[in-house]
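USER:
I wish I could look at a protein chain and see how it folds. I am handing you a single protein, as its sequence and its fold in token form. As I understand it, each token names a local backbone shape. I hope you can help me see how the letters and the tokens relate. The protein I mean follows directly.
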Amino acid sequence: MRDLVRELYEGYSGRAQRFRYAVLAFDLLVIAFVVVSSFFRGAAWSEVIDPILGTIILLDVGARLWIARRPLRDLLHPLGLADLIVIVSLLAPAVGENFAFLRVLRTLRLFRSYQTLARLRRDLPWLRRNQDLAFSVLNIIVFLLVMTALVYESQVGRNEQIRNYADALYFTVSTLTTTGFGDIVPQGSAGRLLAVLIMIFGVSLFIRLAQTVFRPQKVHYKCPHFGLSRHDADAVHCKHCGETLNIPTEGMT
């Protein structure tokens, strides 16, 4: 049984590939649930789905630790800790609303997608060719979701202008981009401090992440003489040493 589980998580078979796609789809489903449930805060069906998702993630974490060569190291890895936090955030609110603030941490499940995408590079040629773009987009999505979740959980119920995740996302994006329409204003000192942090990150991190998405993509090919590993997609010579390159291509499209 352990060999079967290890093959699903780490193998190269078609069954293992389909399993990894299913894991990635589940991670996206968890994030979609976080967004949708914000429109129905306190709904009974949401409280029912919470422990179901938490149990599935718990089984996933247990399976990963079962096949791990060093389980404790994997458990204390940032991805392992993020999974544990997400499990608590999904199971604890069922105990009482005093733990509801942990909902903000459910977006951390998307961090698991970094590992999943790294493994999918072996399966998808397109992802291998555009891995920088894929990870840049994922970085932006993770950053937006975490910031939006912080705004939502800190303002909903206290700020009548933020009633759901869409309102929080609108405020986050307008603040990150320094547009600042002013139609939604954070309430309280904590809300204003959070807005300051978002603006600081918007000027530095978010804009830089956006630039990586729209700038020309590089290809990974190690120069045999100089060792430079990133080149323009149509490069014929290494920019550092002039060595002739032989970057594999698929021809003209």
About this structure: The longest strand covers residues 218-220. The two ends are 46 Å apart (CA to CA).
